[in-house]
Every structure is written in C-alpha cells, then in structure tokens.
Amino acid sequence: MAEEIRNAEMGSATATATAAKKGSLWPSVLRWIPTSTDHIIAAEKRLLSLVKTPYVQEKVDIGSGPPGSKIRWFRSKSNESRFINTVTFDAKDDSPTLVMVHGYGNSQGFFFRNFDALAKRFRVIAVDQLGWGGSSRPDFTCKSTEETEAWFIDSFEEWRKAKNLSNFILLGHSFGGYVAAKYALKHPEHIQHLILVGPAGFSSESDAKSEALIRFRATWKGAILNHLWESNFTPMKIIRGLGPWGPNLVRRYTSARFDYAYHTLVAKASGELCLKHIFSFGAFARMPLLHSASEWKVPTTFIYGYQDWMNYEGAQEARKHMTSPL
Q: What is the CA radius of gyration of the chain?
C-alpha cells in the first residue's frame, strides 16, 4: 500500500508538471494559496486510484435552498445553486445502501482504506459535507447553534432528495457522527440504521467539565486558547497563512495523503467555521445529543476505538434513555 501511495504521489507531481507546461496552473502560481476546487477533485481522484472498486464521482446539485427556508447558506445574491461532492461505489443491485459522512476538517477521501471492504457488502456512497472537501463552500454567516446545525442537516436533506434515497444506513464519524445523529432525529423516516463511529457531541460542558479543564482555563494559556476558539480561529487558518509554504507543513504531518489533505484544508473557509457555534472550548456540545436521547427513533450502533479521543461516557449515558433498538 505504501508503494501504491508513493506512485500516486509521483502521478500527482507529473500531472502538476504537465499542467504547468500547458500554462493552466499559472493563475494558481500567482495566488498566495495555490489551490482550487479543481485541485481538490484532482487530488481526490489520485487518492481514490488506490481503491480497487470502481466508482462514480458527481457533483449533486442541491439548489439554492428549499422554499421558505431561513437558513443563511441558502441566501445568495446570485441565487447560485450549491452542490455536494459525492462518490458512489459499484455494488450488487440488491446491496443495502450505506451513506458515509466524514468528520471535522476531513472529507470523504479520508475513508479510502475502508471503501473496498465495505463495497463487498454495501452500495457505498460517501459525501463531502457542505463547506468541505470538493463541495460548494458558501460564505458561512450562521450566528447561532440552531442555524449552524440547519446548515448541515438541511443541505444533507436536499442532497438526499436529489439522490432519491430512502431506507438507507447512515454512518457518521466524529463530527460527522454528530451531524448524522441530528439528521436522524429530524428525519428518522429515511434511516434504516444509524452507525456512529467515535461520535462527537453527546456531552455538554456542564455534564462533563473536568477539574483539569477548569484549572487550565484559569491559566494565561487557557485564556488565550479560549479566546482563539471563540474567535473562530481554526487550524486551517494557520496553513492558509503560510501561503505557498503550506504544502510542506501538511506533507510533514500527513505523509502520503498530503496532496489531498492540503487542498481540502486550505480551500475557502466555510463549513469549518461551524466549530464555535456547535462546541464550546474543550469540544463540549452546546446542544448535546444526550439531551435528545429520549427522542431517539432509529436503531443505532456505537463504535469507539480502544483509545478513542472522543468521550464515550456521554453516549453510554444516552443509551439509558433511548427506547429505540441498539
């Protein structure tokens, strides 16, 4: 696999050099941040070339918003349609549909090692959430937790309508688990089963604030980090600030996947700006899933790693109040 990844990277360099000879990359050379949606999709294709199962990539038009919506991502002076970048893997006609939703700062390509195994049993569909990866990146103007949740939930619902899906298995990882769970709470009629992999957002600050966090907040370092959090300062802003030196930093920390990771991280800030509205400093949910446990209607499977950095105790407590099958 390592050799395959190196070969894919060599293909990336060759493609870049070829494009440069044609002059098509000249505008990006002049840009401080050398990326674009085309760069993201091209890097995605190189990464997915490591997957043996054939797939189809498409930009699913979700329109400019459902009639009467007050959600800010639907507001556009040009009434511009938005799209969700989607990949669908070949499967047998009778295979159940599995829709995969990535976590914060990620995109669907980060599931690339899972696709082949899952495609043997499911019709796998993976999406880039609105504002991330190769999907549209509208200006993020949400001002509240409710608006921010609707940004993701309603855009996903418009995508589901466009794909004409129902009775599917929904899998969400980390922040994607939070979005998937919130979607299932609002639209349970479409979900056959919910799979939450290391989901974020079950506990609130008041439910699980640790003494260590309280002490840290009282320090000058904690005060600075809390201020940066509330100011919507994200890790992606650091990489963007490095401009043409950003790729070297990302390469250092993500190794083989750096090309794809770099372009998805430094593209226009959009969905990433949800962070301070969804979570308080310390990654505690402002509207925790634990508080909605009694409203759960969808059969749910929880998966946590042995050393998962997401706290499982909130989900464990939520299970006690759920009446749906687990």
A: 20
- What's the pTM? 0.76
The pLDDT confidence band at residue 96, using thresholds 50, 70 and 90, is very high
More confident residue, 200 or 38: 200
Crossing angle (nearest 10°) for helices 246-254 and 258-266: 130
DSSP letter, residue 60: E
Q: Which domains, and CATH codes, for the chain?
A: 2-319 (3.40.50.1820)
pLDDT digits (tens, 9 = 90+) for 9-18: 444 444 444 4
Tell me what pLDDT residue 177 has. Answer: 96
Report DSSP state, residue 292: G
What pLDDT, on a 0 to 100 scale, did the predictor assign at position 248? 59
**CA dihedral defined by 140, 143, 146, 149, rounded to 10 degrees?**
20
Please give the pLDDT value at position 211: 60
Give the count of beta carbons closer than 10 Å to the beta carbon of residue 75. Answer: 14
Is the distance from CB of 153 to CB of 179 less than 8 angstroms?
yes
Would you state the pLDDT for residue 18? 42
Contacts 24+ apart (CB under 8 A), 165-168: 165/97, 165/99, 165/125, 165/190, 166/190, 167/97, 167/191, 167/192, 168/96, 168/97, 168/98, 168/99, 168/192
How many Å apart are CA 71 and CA 221, to the nearest integer?
A: 36
The dihedral sign for the CA sequence 311, 316, 317, 319: positive
